[in-house]
UniProtKB/TrEMBL annotation, chains A, B:
SUPFAM superfamilies, sorted: Zn-dependent exopeptidases (SSF53187)
Stated name of the protein: Peptidase M20 dimerisation domain-containing protein
Residue ranges of domain Peptidase M20 dimerisation in the record: 208-366
Keywords: Hydrolase, Metal-binding, Protease
Amino acid sequence: MTSSPNAKLDTVLARIDSDLPAATDRLLELLRIPSISTDPAYKGDCDRAADWLVTDLQSLGIKAEKRPTPGHPMVVGHVDGPKGSTGPHILFYGHYDVQPVDPLNLWRRDPFDPAIEDTAKGKVIRGRGSADDKGQLMTFIEACRAWKAEHGELPCKITFFLEGEEESGSPSLVPFMKENADELTCDLALICDTGLFQSKTPAIMTMLRGLLGEEFTITGPDKDLHSGMYGGLAMNPARVLTKILGNLFDEDGVIQVPDLYEGVPVLNPEMKAQWEGLGFDYKTFLGDVGLSEPAGEASVTPLEMIWSRPTAEINGIWSGYTGAGFKTVLPSEASAKLSFRLVGTQDPLAIRKNFRAWVEAQLPADCKITWKDHSCSPASQMSTDHPAFEAARKALTDEWPDPAAYAGCGGSIPIAGYFKSILGMDAMLVGWGKDDDMIHSPNEKYDLESFHKGTRSWARMLAAMSE
Amino acid sequence: MTSSPNAKLDTVLARIDSDLPAATDRLLELLRIPSISTDPAYKGDCDRAADWLVTDLQSLGIKAEKRPTPGHPMVVGHVDGPKGSTGPHILFYGHYDVQPVDPLNLWRRDPFDPAIEDTAKGKVIRGRGSADDKGQLMTFIEACRAWKAEHGELPCKITFFLEGEEESGSPSLVPFMKENADELTCDLALICDTGLFQSKTPAIMTMLRGLLGEEFTITGPDKDLHSGMYGGLAMNPARVLTKILGNLFDEDGVIQVPDLYEGVPVLNPEMKAQWEGLGFDYKTFLGDVGLSEPAGEASVTPLEMIWSRPTAEINGIWSGYTGAGFKTVLPSEASAKLSFRLVGTQDPLAIRKNFRAWVEAQLPADCKITWKDHSCSPASQMSTDHPAFEAARKALTDEWPDPAAYAGCGGSIPIAGYFKSILGMDAMLVGWGKDDDMIHSPNEKYDLESFHKGTRSWARMLAAMSE
């Protein structure tokens, strides 16, 4: 008879430790591919990143292939567990695409020439995608590699599902899941795209905010004008845009879009108490980025602002002359990109409708407006009933100094909800990112500790869940 | 005895008519030089434009040279009139620098590959600088060329003073005028950088608005952040910027900067009556650019909005991600460029101080702000006492269908005030631009009629003023 997965764990962990330099080199290779999904100029690079992953998975004996979509390809792979394994059939999800890198001048190195750097806080892997999400998805693949190398097989049956459009709203995801529902349905989905709580406590995210992305352009005069010739008489769309967005919040930080708070749940006392128990240190959290004061609704706690309350953020605005020097132009157009984070049962489509009506009601007669849709996903609440959750929480507690916690997450990972609604399976969100990883920002990094202990954590979780 | 200037005029006008094709070719040559003064990348081109003018002036027997400044060079030239001429010593001012060309994608041709185009309204010279100001300054030089060709000399003593920094706030102008006051002081200055009233009535501008240019950057977090991780908790500088600029005007279009209207004169009844007599057709003026409603102070007339009232215009705003697709970033910085048009005795420095204090008073504790100075010039009111004004007005009336008018001007031509304050001479502002020339915009043009009749007008004015 074969020994139990847990009995096989020690040699896997040892292999992960000794293989760390080679594992890091593999990650650096993947990080050199500039797979920016939102910018059409990088389509070929997204394709190369998918090919790289297919080849790597195949080297583990996994039946992997690149699957086309109208956008960037999916990478899908399948591998069986041991004969007679009683473990669950697990799906692992990660994404190989990355965020744009601008403002490029703020990077201290080429974002796609990654390297290991020594910092005051220890060794880090610096480069775009190191933390979001290439470094994270490779922790799982490296854990599988160690299992395969030590024991010739993986401890349970696994389906790999790697996406290339997560940073651009995942337009192909839902259609692909629906078309391939039978193939992708497993007992449980593992999603590795989140972080540790306060950079030290392993966390299984059970509450995810939704995301609504909006973009609009206001047009006033049909061409740029001389501000001396027309100024004061011709309506300036930049004036209109700032006036409208200037009304987005009241003095208490409450979003002014009608009915926006419909479906926002009241935080139940138990959860509120557990969160207070976590002792969220918002002063350090904000201090790390040069701030000190919570900017959200005056009536809620800082942790609620990022976990359980809806938000509206201006992600970009542009109008007129933005180059060096000065140009006395009265611009023809002014544009903005905004995103709303959604919670509870807030309806993204209703909020899109209400937001657009709210903006258009403030538009002067002489201005036109055009809209672009971006992401549109509701919030989701994970069930933790599947026994794998408690097994995973114990395994995580064995690896890290602090016991693992069930936590909320400010970010939006729509796929978690889709696994439930389309494939009927629960999703477990676990990751090793830290608050100071600067994902989506210049100088993104991933701690070597996150990469190493993250890989070890997956090895432990695979064993625990396969018992 | 030599015949009078007026007796010599007819052959000069005939020469201008026959020389028009060659004159147009010379202008196209100058327009091909991309002398964008505000952008350091074009420094060499500004220099080339100055050299081109020096060579052209020298070909008319004018002692011309390029004179260095800390910025772009001045072109200065001198030529005597006829022996025993009783005419005034005239200074002619124009500028050889041009505005930036963005947004480039809106140009129907390369802005620096100019050409004559047939349009529904007749032939036009299309290209950046065709109207502002290369085409205009060349009308004067071509008039001189014709006088020289027909009579071997010019009808009066003339000093040429051509600038290369007008579109970037003329930083070197005042120091240069002060250092060379003796050389530049004449009886009267002619400035060719304005237009016809409503595209048809020749106008001598007697009222010019001042200009104050401001630029600021608001910094919130010290790096770009993930809007999901920090959104709702961290202050967003784009939210702060839109909030502040959204307060710039009240519902009646009144600018909210404290004391801004100090020094704004009440329009006297005579001037008000004369302006009403001009029958300004604001519906066509706005209709030409796709608008219909006056956007200025509810309490004043459309003509006052562009001639005699102060304005505040947002010339540019930028923050966060402005590229293709979507990026859920919470930006670190948000910036704006604004310009104020000033009238009467409004004090630009006081308004700069009050505006900055007004902005900073609205800044949250967590935000920093940095400022950049741009143009800073008061409004000016021209005196028309010098007999040359009436002589010029008659000469203009001879050339054009409508009698010439004394008019206001929305734009800002600070040098007019400097000629008076530094050199003690009056300035006469005359030009041939039309409302639809799209100066400072894509597809700038100058009507061939403006170029031709403008040249003829200068010939007439030189004769009339030299009598």
